[in-house]
Amino acid sequence: MLRVTAGRLCLILAMSSLALAPSLLSAKGVKAAKDARVYFISPADGETVSGPFICRFGLRNMGVTHAGDDFAGSGHHHLLIDVDETMQAGEPIPRDKKHIHYAAGETEARIELPPGKHTLQLVLGDTKHLNFDPPLVSEKIMITVGKSNGSDEARATRSTNERRRILERAAAPEPLQLQPAVTPEMTKSPESSDFISRVFTGSK
Ligand SMILES: [Cu+2]
Fold first, then answer.
1. Which class would CATH give 20-146?
2. Of 6, 8, 33, 169, which alpha carbon lies 20 to 30 A from 108's?
3. Residue range 169-185: mean pLDDT, rounded
4. Ligand 1 center–CA 76 separation, angstroms
5. Residue extents of the structural domains in the chain
6. What values do phi and psi take at 118, rounded to 5?
7. Ligand 1 ion: nearby residues, β-carbon < 5 Å
8. Hey, how many other C-beta atoms are within 10 angstroms of the C-beta on 44?
9. pTM of the entire predicted model
Protein backbone atom coordinates (compact mmCIF):
# COMPACT_ATOMS: atom_id res chain seq x y z
CA MET A 1 0.00 0.00 0.00
CA LEU A 2 1.24 3.45 -0.86
CA ARG A 3 1.01 5.75 2.09
CA VAL A 4 1.53 9.47 1.60
CA THR A 5 1.93 11.54 4.72
CA ALA A 6 0.69 15.11 4.83
CA GLY A 7 4.27 16.37 4.81
CA ARG A 8 5.20 14.36 1.75
CA LEU A 9 2.04 15.46 -0.06
CA CYS A 10 2.99 19.10 0.49
CA LEU A 11 6.45 18.39 -0.90
CA ILE A 12 4.99 16.67 -3.95
CA LEU A 13 2.60 19.58 -4.57
CA ALA A 14 5.39 22.11 -4.21
CA MET A 15 7.59 20.21 -6.67
CA SER A 16 4.82 19.79 -9.23
CA SER A 17 3.94 23.49 -9.15
CA LEU A 18 7.61 24.31 -9.75
CA ALA A 19 7.41 22.17 -12.87
CA LEU A 20 4.57 24.31 -14.30
CA ALA A 21 6.83 26.82 -16.05
CA PRO A 22 6.23 29.90 -13.90
CA SER A 23 6.91 32.20 -16.86
CA LEU A 24 3.78 30.96 -18.65
CA LEU A 25 1.47 30.91 -15.68
CA SER A 26 0.58 33.59 -13.26
CA ALA A 27 -1.77 33.55 -10.33
CA LYS A 28 -4.42 35.08 -12.60
CA GLY A 29 -4.15 32.97 -15.72
CA VAL A 30 -2.06 32.16 -18.77
CA LYS A 31 0.04 35.14 -19.82
CA ALA A 32 -1.05 36.67 -23.10
CA ALA A 33 1.63 37.47 -25.66
CA LYS A 34 2.75 41.03 -25.01
CA ASP A 35 1.81 42.36 -28.45
CA ALA A 36 -1.24 40.16 -29.09
CA ARG A 37 -4.24 41.92 -30.56
CA VAL A 38 -7.79 40.72 -31.18
CA TYR A 39 -9.91 42.69 -33.65
CA PHE A 40 -12.85 42.53 -36.05
CA ILE A 41 -12.01 42.17 -39.72
CA SER A 42 -15.73 42.62 -40.37
CA PRO A 43 -18.22 44.05 -39.77
CA ALA A 44 -16.83 47.53 -39.24
CA ASP A 45 -17.73 49.65 -36.23
CA GLY A 46 -20.93 51.52 -37.06
CA GLU A 47 -21.81 49.32 -40.03
CA THR A 48 -25.42 48.56 -40.91
CA VAL A 49 -26.07 44.98 -41.97
CA SER A 50 -29.25 43.45 -43.27
CA GLY A 51 -30.17 39.97 -42.17
CA PRO A 52 -27.54 37.35 -41.41
CA PHE A 53 -23.96 38.54 -41.81
CA ILE A 54 -20.51 37.04 -41.68
CA CYS A 55 -18.42 38.11 -38.75
CA ARG A 56 -14.66 37.70 -39.31
CA PHE A 57 -12.29 37.46 -36.36
CA GLY A 58 -8.76 38.89 -36.49
CA LEU A 59 -5.83 37.96 -34.28
CA ARG A 60 -2.22 39.15 -34.37
CA ASN A 61 0.84 37.71 -32.68
CA MET A 62 -0.93 34.66 -31.29
CA GLY A 63 -2.46 31.62 -32.96
CA VAL A 64 -5.94 30.16 -33.19
CA THR A 65 -6.44 26.55 -32.17
CA HIS A 66 -9.11 24.20 -30.83
CA ALA A 67 -10.19 24.43 -27.23
CA GLY A 68 -8.33 21.66 -25.46
CA ASP A 69 -5.16 22.18 -27.53
CA ASP A 70 -2.52 23.49 -25.21
CA PHE A 71 -0.06 25.05 -27.66
CA ALA A 72 1.83 27.98 -26.22
CA GLY A 73 0.65 31.37 -27.47
CA SER A 74 -2.67 30.17 -28.84
CA GLY A 75 -6.34 30.23 -27.97
CA HIS A 76 -9.82 30.28 -29.48
CA HIS A 77 -12.25 33.07 -30.26
CA HIS A 78 -15.40 34.06 -28.39
CA LEU A 79 -18.00 36.52 -29.58
CA LEU A 80 -19.75 38.61 -26.96
CA ILE A 81 -23.09 40.02 -28.10
CA ASP A 82 -24.56 42.92 -26.14
CA VAL A 83 -22.37 42.13 -23.15
CA ASP A 84 -21.47 44.91 -20.73
CA GLU A 85 -19.36 43.04 -18.22
CA THR A 86 -15.57 43.34 -18.27
CA MET A 87 -13.52 40.19 -18.73
CA GLN A 88 -11.29 39.29 -15.78
CA ALA A 89 -7.87 37.66 -16.10
CA GLY A 90 -7.98 33.94 -15.42
CA GLU A 91 -11.77 33.89 -15.09
CA PRO A 92 -13.90 31.56 -17.21
CA ILE A 93 -15.66 33.07 -20.22
CA PRO A 94 -19.38 32.41 -19.69
CA ARG A 95 -21.14 30.14 -22.15
CA ASP A 96 -24.62 31.27 -23.21
CA LYS A 97 -26.42 33.00 -26.11
CA LYS A 98 -24.44 36.19 -25.50
CA HIS A 99 -21.05 34.49 -25.09
CA ILE A 100 -20.44 32.26 -28.09
CA HIS A 101 -17.43 29.93 -28.00
CA TYR A 102 -15.69 29.03 -31.25
CA ALA A 103 -14.01 26.00 -29.77
CA ALA A 104 -13.19 24.38 -33.11
CA GLY A 105 -10.83 27.23 -33.94
CA GLU A 106 -13.23 29.06 -36.24
CA THR A 107 -12.11 32.45 -37.50
CA GLU A 108 -15.48 33.54 -38.85
CA ALA A 109 -19.14 32.90 -38.17
CA ARG A 110 -22.54 33.62 -39.66
CA ILE A 111 -24.48 35.70 -37.19
CA GLU A 112 -28.17 36.47 -37.18
CA LEU A 113 -29.49 39.09 -34.77
CA PRO A 114 -32.84 40.79 -34.29
CA PRO A 115 -33.16 44.20 -35.96
CA GLY A 116 -31.73 47.13 -34.05
CA LYS A 117 -28.41 48.17 -32.55
CA HIS A 118 -26.06 45.58 -31.06
CA THR A 119 -22.58 45.62 -29.60
CA LEU A 120 -20.04 42.97 -30.56
CA GLN A 121 -16.75 42.18 -28.89
CA LEU A 122 -14.21 39.41 -29.39
CA VAL A 123 -12.34 37.65 -26.61
CA LEU A 124 -9.56 35.13 -27.02
CA GLY A 125 -9.77 32.37 -24.42
CA ASP A 126 -7.20 29.78 -23.45
CA THR A 127 -7.48 26.02 -23.87
CA LYS A 128 -9.84 25.82 -20.88
CA HIS A 129 -12.03 28.80 -21.92
CA LEU A 130 -10.37 31.04 -19.35
CA ASN A 131 -9.34 34.62 -19.99
CA PHE A 132 -5.67 35.30 -20.58
CA ASP A 133 -3.73 37.62 -18.31
CA PRO A 134 -4.36 40.37 -19.24
CA PRO A 135 -7.68 39.50 -20.95
CA LEU A 136 -7.39 39.58 -24.76
CA VAL A 137 -10.43 41.55 -25.83
CA SER A 138 -11.12 43.47 -29.02
CA GLU A 139 -12.52 46.93 -29.27
CA LYS A 140 -16.28 46.80 -28.70
CA ILE A 141 -18.08 47.69 -31.93
CA MET A 142 -21.68 48.71 -32.51
CA ILE A 143 -23.63 47.56 -35.54
CA THR A 144 -27.16 48.15 -36.72
CA VAL A 145 -29.16 45.25 -38.06
CA GLY A 146 -31.67 46.53 -40.60
CA LYS A 147 -35.13 45.11 -41.09
CA SER A 148 -35.02 44.74 -44.88
CA ASN A 149 -33.59 41.76 -46.77
CA GLY A 150 -33.19 39.60 -43.70
CA SER A 151 -36.67 38.06 -43.57
CA ASP A 152 -37.50 34.66 -45.02
CA GLU A 153 -39.90 36.41 -47.38
CA ALA A 154 -37.12 38.64 -48.73
CA ARG A 155 -34.80 35.66 -49.10
CA ALA A 156 -37.49 33.75 -50.98
CA THR A 157 -38.01 36.74 -53.32
CA ARG A 158 -34.27 36.95 -53.89
CA SER A 159 -33.96 33.31 -54.80
CA THR A 160 -37.01 33.49 -57.08
CA ASN A 161 -35.42 36.44 -58.90
CA GLU A 162 -32.17 34.53 -59.16
CA ARG A 163 -33.95 31.51 -60.64
CA ARG A 164 -35.74 33.74 -63.13
CA ARG A 165 -32.43 35.31 -64.23
CA ILE A 166 -30.89 31.84 -64.72
CA LEU A 167 -33.88 30.71 -66.81
CA GLU A 168 -33.75 33.91 -68.90
CA ARG A 169 -30.06 33.38 -69.49
CA ALA A 170 -30.67 29.77 -70.56
CA ALA A 171 -33.40 30.82 -72.99
CA ALA A 172 -31.37 33.68 -74.49
CA PRO A 173 -29.86 33.27 -78.00
CA GLU A 174 -26.20 32.44 -78.38
CA PRO A 175 -24.04 35.21 -76.91
CA LEU A 176 -22.40 37.60 -79.38
CA GLN A 177 -19.03 36.45 -80.59
CA LEU A 178 -16.38 38.57 -78.95
CA GLN A 179 -13.54 37.36 -81.15
CA PRO A 180 -13.57 38.52 -84.77
CA ALA A 181 -15.28 35.90 -86.87
CA VAL A 182 -13.15 34.44 -89.62
CA THR A 183 -14.97 35.00 -92.89
CA PRO A 184 -14.42 32.84 -96.00
CA GLU A 185 -12.80 35.82 -97.85
CA MET A 186 -10.26 36.26 -95.12
CA THR A 187 -9.20 32.63 -95.16
CA LYS A 188 -9.11 32.10 -98.93
CA SER A 189 -5.50 33.15 -99.46
CA PRO A 190 -2.39 32.22 -97.46
CA GLU A 191 -1.55 35.93 -97.02
CA SER A 192 -4.86 36.73 -95.34
CA SER A 193 -4.62 33.80 -92.91
CA ASP A 194 -1.06 34.92 -92.21
CA PHE A 195 -2.45 38.40 -91.54
CA ILE A 196 -5.01 36.98 -89.13
CA SER A 197 -2.45 34.97 -87.23
CA ARG A 198 -0.29 38.10 -87.00
CA VAL A 199 -3.26 40.02 -85.60
CA PHE A 200 -3.88 37.33 -82.98
CA THR A 201 -0.28 36.79 -81.96
CA GLY A 202 0.67 40.45 -82.19
CA SER A 203 3.74 39.62 -84.34
CA LYS A 204 4.77 41.72 -87.37
CU1 LIG B 1 -14.22 28.88 -25.12
1. mainly beta
2. 33
3. 50
4. 6
5. 20-146
6. -140, 150
7. 101, 125, 129
8. 9
9. 0.62
